[in-house]
Design brief:
277 residues; Rossmann fold; globular
Length: 277
């Protein structure tokens, strides 16, 4: 009897990751067009955040982040870290986010494939999944939200938005919280020239204006006012949100007093916002 119970306990205790054939963090889940990493909370899964690394990063690096991933796991969220495409001569990875630039992979399609694959492998609710990202991962998040707004339930870009030339329209309204550092000099709020003589160089790569990005979402969400409807001025984040917009939408802009990073407390703020949608 003891042996039987031991076997039953072992079978019941098999992790979802083991059953799925990939994960923990060091073991990538592979698809035809790329790979991703995943980590699950102890106990029931309350929700899922797919988070895109910055330039030169990786999905594994995303899940090893000690600033916000432990907070998300403690709150009951699974975290998915997709891998961008490899850069020649480097271990780092990138995203093909701007529609006018060379496409190393159809990353909009790839991220939806990751969503669907992870939902099946790990029994996650794809219809309530948030997509976020840092730096160009935030840009990738913004462009996917613009192109396929219904692909994810909500969007959480951090430190990255649209690039110049800015898009002038998107496919539909979104639920989106954009977070940015007030003193970010890598992706400044006004943008910067990344490559080229100056911003008038026709060959230049120029980051977008984050204020334009937020204004674009305000228009896409059909918000009645230019100014925000609600403000938070206490705590680690200065926040403004637009409430009088199209039904079933959400738009918030959060600033923190720091530079180019995912700040402490971001997961708590972002997931509280997500849970109230």
């Amino acid at each position: 009897m003891k042996t039987f119970l031991t076997v039953v306990a072992a079978l019941v205790g098999l992790s979802t990751s083991a059953q799925a054939g990939c994960g923990p963090v060091d073991t990538a889940c592979t698809l035809e067009n790329g790979s991703y990493h995943v980590t699950l909370p102890d106990g029931d899964v309350k929700g899922t955040v797919m988070f895109l690394h910055g330039f030169g990063g990786s999905g594994k690096g995303t899940l090893n982040n000690k600033v916000w991933v432990p907070d998300a796991l403690a709150r009951g969220y699974a975290v998915i870290g997709p891998d961008g495409t490899k850069r020649e001569g480097s271990n780092g990875r990138r995203w093909s986010f701007h529609p006018d630039w060379p496409q190393h992979r159809d990353d909009i399609a790839f991220l939806q494939d990751v969503r669907d694959d992870a939902a099946v492998r790990f029994d996650l609710d794809a219809s309530r999944m948030a997509l976020g990202g840092f730096s160009i991962g935030g840009s990738m998040t913004s462009y996917l939200a613009c192109a396929v707004p219904d692909a994810f339930y909500a969007y959480l870009p951090v430190g990255g938005g649209f690039w110049r030339p800015h898009p002038t329209e998107c496919e539909g309204p979104v639920r989106l919280l954009h977070t940015h550092g007030w003193s970010d000099t890598t992706v400044p709020l006004e943008g910067r020239v990344v490559r080229g003589a100056d911003r008038n160089d026709p060959e230049a790569f120029v980051q977008g204006d984050i204020f334009y990005t937020v204004g674009m979402w305000r228009d896409v969400n059909q918000c009645l006012q230019l100014r925000a409807d609600a403000f938070v001025t206490k705590g680690d984040f200065m926040r403004r949100s637009w409430k009088r917009c199209a039904p079933d939408t959400a738009l918030e802009f959060a600033i923190f007093p720091g530079g180019h990073k995912v700040p402490q407390g971001w997961a708590e703020m972002a997931l509280e916002w997500f849970e109230k949608l």
